[in-house]
Structure formats: structure tokens, C-alpha cells
């Protein structure tokens, strides 16, 4: 598998977010060691590095992918 060297340093979370489909069920996102409950994955912008998750109450959580430690799926 040939990867763009520019993206090699971005790591597993970057690549995972790049492959998720909008609406994918997500239980929790761990950000800098803190657990944040979410409902689903919304989108990921690989150019800005921002990941968007929707919460049960209709709020949107926006986080820089570099701060995500783990993602827990349903």
C-alpha cells in the first residue's frame, strides 16, 4: 500500500475518521483523556483536521483529530 508521505505522520485516528460514513453510531469520544458522550459521527474535514460528532441533545461536538485519544463504537 502506497501512502502519501505528507499523511503518514497523521496517524490512525486521522485515517479512521477519513473512512467513517456520516451517521456511524459512536458511543463515546475520548478527548485528551476525557470521555465525551456522543450519538454519531457527522463528518471529518481532512484539510482542517476537525471532526464533527452529533450528540443526543442535538448539539454538535467539534474536535481537532489530534486531541482524540480513542473512539468507542456502539
Explain this structure to me?
The protein is of the alpha+beta class. The protein has a domain at 27-74. The protein has two helices and six strands. The strands form two sheets. It has a three-stranded antiparallel sheet with strand order 2-1-6, with no helix packed on it. Strands 3-4-5 form a three-stranded antiparallel sheet, with no helix packed on it. It is globular. The model has no long low-confidence stretch (mean pLDDT 91).
Concise synopsis of the structure shown:
The protein has 74 residues and is an alpha+beta fold. Helices cover 18% and strands 43% of the residues.
Could you list some keywords that capture this structure?
74 residues, three-stranded antiparallel beta sheet, 6 strands, 2 helices
Topology:
Blueprint lengths: L4 H4 L2 H9 L6 E6 L2 E4 L2 E6 L4 E5 L5 E5 L3 E6 L1
Antiparallel strand pairs: 1-2, 1-6, 3-4, 4-5
Note the overall shape: globular
Structural class: alpha+beta
Number of helices: 2
Write the element-wise H/E pattern from the N-terminal end onward. Answer: HHEEEEEE
Strand line-up across the major sheet: 2-1-6
Task: Write down the Rg.
Answer: 12 Å
State the major sheet. Answer: 3 strands, antiparallel
Uncertain residue ranges: none
Please state the average pLDDT score. 91
Count all strands and give the number: 6
Overall helicity: 10-25%
End-to-end Cα distance, whole Å, is 29 Å
The fraction of residues assigned to DSSP E strands is 35-45%
Amino acid at each position: 500500500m502506497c501512502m502519501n508521505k505528507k499523511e503518514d505522520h497523521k496517524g490512525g485516528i486521522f485515517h479512521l475518521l477519513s473512512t467513517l460514513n456520516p451517521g456511524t453510531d459512536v458511543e463515546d469520544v475520548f478527548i485528551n483523556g476525557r470521555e465525551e458522550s456522543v450519538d454519531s459521527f457527522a463528518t471529518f474535514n481532512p484539510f482542517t483536521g476537525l471532526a464533527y460528532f452529533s450528540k443526543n441533545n442535538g448539539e454538535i461536538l467539534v474536535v481537532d483529530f489530534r486531541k482524540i485519544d480513542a473512539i468507542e463504537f456502539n
